[in-house]
Design brief:
The protein is mostly beta strands. The chain has two helices and 28 strands.
Length: about 325
């Protein structure tokens, strides 16, 4: 009986080691390479992180089929209404690809029942003097404000503007990217909300215009509307610079920044021609005026107005650049 007591733990150890040897290899057990089970790529399964998945669930795993080593469509998720644009050898070629992609989506007739997403990988997309005209029911999404940049030197000679780096035409959203209009053109606009276009959104986006002439970050025009959230607009240098300009449109501005600096005249927001602007939880900076309202309605709530104010304004729970509370008329 004493001898059987001695060998009993040894027998258990051998049996446990044998059971471990029968388990499938998996990253969960220290193996870093996916293991194929079950034959060719069309039926193969991958053991990944302890869960068995098929190649159709994998998005570009090394650009090859992990089971056969050959390139196959099973390496990517099939996207029905999303078109992905990748950067090319040069920024201008990347801009060409972006415009071509939007044209491709247009041929698929996007609509309220057929919405599309144009997804941009990180990169610089130079439109080479052209404007990017968005389409209704097509959202344009970058991969981050610091990594996806759309740029073009676009000039406009009329007020309200008729051209910009990006033109929004209603029922669409611009998000997670940067838009730049920079150079010596007479009048520059980063993003233009076209006349009579409704249901536009700008979220998590940076817009910058700079250089000689007149600079506007975001311009809202006749009978159009836009909702802005978590974004920053800046216009710097030149003659007249406005972070945002509302000409007879409807602007909702929430948790965002609008900055104008280093121009002969600088306005964080310029409201005109009966425009209706609502500002909440935001910061507006302008050395000339944080807000100029020549005509229309401007209401400000829980925001900082860093710079003098001009025109008829309504303020609630707001303060100036020194954090001094403003009264009901933003004084």
């Amino acid at each position: 009986m004493k001898r059987s007591g001695i060998y009993f733990p040894l027998v258990l150890g051998v049996l446990f080691g044998f059971a471990i040897g029968l388990l499938p290899i998996s990253p969960a057990l220290g193996e870093n390479i996916p293991v194929c089970q079950g034959g060719p790529s069309t039926t193969a399964k991958i053991s990944l992180g302890g869960r068995v998945i098929t190649p159709t669930e994998i998005l570009r795993v090394g650009s090859v089929d992990p089971c056969t080593g050959s390139e196959t469509i099973l390496n990517m998720v099939t996207l029905t209404r999303t078109l992905v644009v990748s950067p090319k050898a040069t920024p201008v070629q990347s801009g060409d690809a972006l415009i071509a992609a939007l044209s491709t989506i247009s041929s698929n007739s996007p609509s309220v029942t057929n919405p599309w997403l144009l997804k941009l990988e990180p990169g610089l997309y130079d439109l080479n003097g052209r404007a990017l005209n968005s389409l209704p029911f097509v959202d344009i999404e970058g991969s981050g404000e610091d990594t996806t940049v759309i740029t073009s030197l676009v000039n406009t000679n009329i007020l309200p503007a008729d051209a910009a780096t990006v033109i929004m035409n209603g029922d669409s959203e611009l998000r997670f990217l940067k838009v730049v209009n920079s150079g010596s053109a007479t009048n520059k606009v980063g993003v233009l909300v076209a006349p009579n276009s409704l249901n536009n959104k700008v979220t998590n986006t940076t817009i910058n215009t700079n250089g000689a002439g007149n600079n506007v970050g975001l311009e809202v025009t006749n009978a159009s509307s836009v909702m802005v959230q978590n974004s920053t607009f800046s216009a710097t240098g030149g003659l007249n610079s406005s972070g945002a300009y509302n000409y007879a449109g409807i602007l909702f501005f929430n948790n965002s920044n609008s900055i104008a600096a280093n121009g002969s005249s600088n306005n964080g927001l310029f409201n005109n021609a009966g425009g209706v602007s609502t500002i909440q939880n935001s910061t507006l900076i302008g050395l000339t005026h944080s807000i100029t309202s020549l005509s229309g309605t401007v209401k400000v709530g829980a925001s900082q107005l860093n710079g003098p104010r001009l025109g008829t304004l309504v303020c609630a729970a707001s303060f100036d650049g020194s954090f001094v509370a403003l009264n009901a008329t933003c004084g």
